[in-house]
Amino acid sequence: MGRLEKIWVKRAHRGRMDPATDGVLDAGKGLCDNANYGGRRQVTIISAERWAEIEDDLEVEIDPSARRANLMVSGVDLENSRDRVLRVGPCLLRIGGETRPCERMDEAHQGLQEAMKPRWGGGAWAIVVEGGPIAVGDEVAWVSTP
Known about the structure:
Radius of gyration: 14 Å
Shape: globular
Number of strands: 11
Structural class: mainly beta
Order of helices and strands: EEEEEHEEEHHEEE
CATH superfamily: PK beta-barrel domain-like
Distance between the termini: 19 Å
Largest sheet: 7 strands, mixed, barrel
CATH class: Mainly Beta
CATH topology: M1 Pyruvate Kinase, Domain 3
CATH architecture: Beta Barrel
Helix content: 10-25%
C-alpha cells in the first residue's frame, strides 16, 4: 500500500509546476486546471523512492517538481507498469507507459536526464479511468496487472 505524497499542477506548457494539496481528476481528461488536460498523457506520476535513488546517485537534493510530473507516489513501483491500474484515493488510473526524461531535466541539474533513464526513473503516464477528488495523503495501490 502506498501514499500520494505530492500534487503539482502545470498551468501552462513549459510553465512552472504549482504545488497543490488537492485536486480533481476527470475521467478521460486528466488533472483539472493542468495544461495537459485532455491530452494523450493525462496524468504523469513519479515514485518518491526512485527519486530518492536518483538524488543519491547524483549526490544532490533536487526539488522533485523539476521532473514536471503531476503526482508523486510512494510505496508502489512504477517500473514496467504499462497497462496496470493504480488506485489513487477514489480514482483509477491506467498506466499508458514510461515517461522518458527530456533535455529539460539537465536545466534543473546537469546529469539528471541520464540518471533518470534506468528503471523508469522519469516515471509513468496514465489515463484517468475513474475520476474524483484526490488529496495529498490519499492511499495508493495497484488494483490489477495486465
